[in-house]
């Protein structure tokens, strides 16, 4: 198996680079992007998202014809979002689509590879920064080949935290997001940031630039790869109410340490979006 997963890692890295580099994502940033919407008027998608997802799926199928897929745009088109024990590729072709639409410079290709419902390989390619983040379960986390380690800061008052505002404009959801933001800022923390992509936010935790990241409303494809980056860099993952993270629950808290995570989750006003594996389609 180890050799097969090594091949999976090489393929994920090669495909993410091919998708993200001048070939597709960066090239598309040079021309006008036609924008469509999915679940609501601020949940955006472009032809490039769809094109990149097909490119990744085809590359994987050529090498591993029996493997399964959970891809953001395939699910949006009606494919089921079910994680089984079978080898499964969990793909976000462009994490940070809203950034991509506005040419805001944080855009990632995110590829997770799971077996027995456990993520074995995680690759996040931050296209415009030319940063290739890779992790293999039990093998550490890396950025452009340099080993990553989470921050050692355990004092929440010295911490910087990432979060996002998401794509729901439901007044109750917006209220919860702002209550959490106010509480986290008021601890006080050093600051709150958001790159506009869950995958890159998680890579920032893995890199030690921020101590934690939390979000409610993300999807399994946004976080599958980043989750492995965090744990392989020495960090922890939790649900926003404590307890183990469930990748399908659309809730995540990633942090450098259990102590900081536990402190932060006291400030998060949680809610339960419809699970990825319960939604008919996006
Ligand atoms: C996005 C996430 C982001 C979140 C957005 C969205 P997409 O993914 O990475 O953190 O706030 O709601 O889910 O749609 O750009 O792949």
How are the SSEs placed, and which strands pair?
Blueprint: H1 2-20, H2 22-28, E1 35-37, E2 44-46, H3 47-63, E3 68-71, H4 72-76, E4 88-95, H5 97-102, E5 108-115, E6 118-126, E7 131-136, E8 140-143, E9 146-147, E10 160-162, H6 171-185, E11 191-193, H7 198-207, E12 212-216, H8 220-232, E13 236-238, E14 251-255, H9 258-265
Parallel strand pairs: 3-4, 10-11, 10-12
Antiparallel strand pairs: 1-2, 4-5, 5-6, 6-7, 7-8, 8-9, 12-14, 13-14
The structure holds L-MYO-inositol-1-phosphate.
CATH class of the largest domain: Alpha Beta
Count of DSSP-assigned helices: 9
Specify the overall morphology.
globular
Tally of distinct domains: 2
Oligomeric state: single chain
| Alpha carbon gap, first and last residue | 34 Å
> Which ions and ligands are bound to the chains?
L-MYO-inositol-1-phosphate
SSE order, one letter for each helix or strand: HHEEHEHEHEEEEEEHEHEHEEH
Helix content: 25-40%
Enter the CATH topology name of the largest domain: Fructose-1,6-Bisphosphatase, Chain A, domain 1
Can you give the mean pLDDT?
Answer: 94
Low-confidence stretches: none
What name goes with the CATH superfamily of the largest domain? Fructose-1,6-Bisphosphatase, subunit A, domain 1
Using only C-alpha atoms, the radius of gyration works out to: 17 Å
Spatial ordering of strands, largest sheet: 3-4-5-6-7-8-9
Provide the β-strand percentage band: 15-25%
- Structural class estimated from helices and strands: alpha+beta
Major sheet description = 7 strands, mixed
* Beta strands, count: 14
Level-2 CATH architecture of the largest domain = 2-Layer Sandwich
């Amino acid at each position: 198996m180890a050799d097969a997963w090594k091949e999976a890692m090489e393929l994920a890295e090669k495909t993410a680079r091919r998708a993200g580099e001048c070939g597709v994502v960066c090239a598309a940033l040079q021309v006008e992007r036609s924008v469509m919407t999915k679940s609501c008027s601020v949940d955006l998608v472009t032809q490039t998202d769809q094109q990149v997802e097909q490119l990744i799926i085809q590359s994987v199928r050529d090498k591993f014809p029996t493997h399964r897929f959970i891809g953001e745009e395939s699910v949006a088109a009606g494919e089921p979002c079910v994680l089984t024990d079978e080898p499964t590729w969990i793909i976000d072709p462009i994490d940070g689509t809203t950034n991509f639409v506005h040419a805001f410079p944080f855009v990632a290709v995110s590829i997770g590879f799971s077996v027995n419902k456990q993520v074995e390989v995680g690759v996040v390619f931050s296209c415009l920064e030319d940063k290739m983040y890779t992790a293999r379960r039990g093998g550490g986390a890396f950025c452009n080949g340099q080993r990553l380690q989470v921050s050692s800061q355990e004092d929440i008052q010295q911490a910087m935290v990432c979060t996002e505002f998401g794509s729901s404009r439901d007044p109750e959801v917006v209220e919860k997001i702002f209550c959490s933001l106010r509480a986290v800022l008021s601890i006080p923390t050093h600051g709150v940031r958001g790159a506009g992509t869950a995958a890159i936010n998680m890579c920032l935790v893995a890199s030690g630039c921020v101590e934690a990241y939390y979000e409610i409303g993300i999807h399994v494809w946004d976080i599958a790869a980043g989750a492995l980056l965090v744990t392989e860099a020495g960090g922890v993952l939790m649900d926003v109410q404590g307890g183990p993270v469930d990748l399908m629950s659309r809730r995540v808290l990633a942090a450098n340490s259990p102590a900081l995570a536990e402190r932060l989750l006291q400030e998060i006003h949680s809610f339960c979006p419809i699970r990825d594996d319960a939604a008919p389609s996006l």
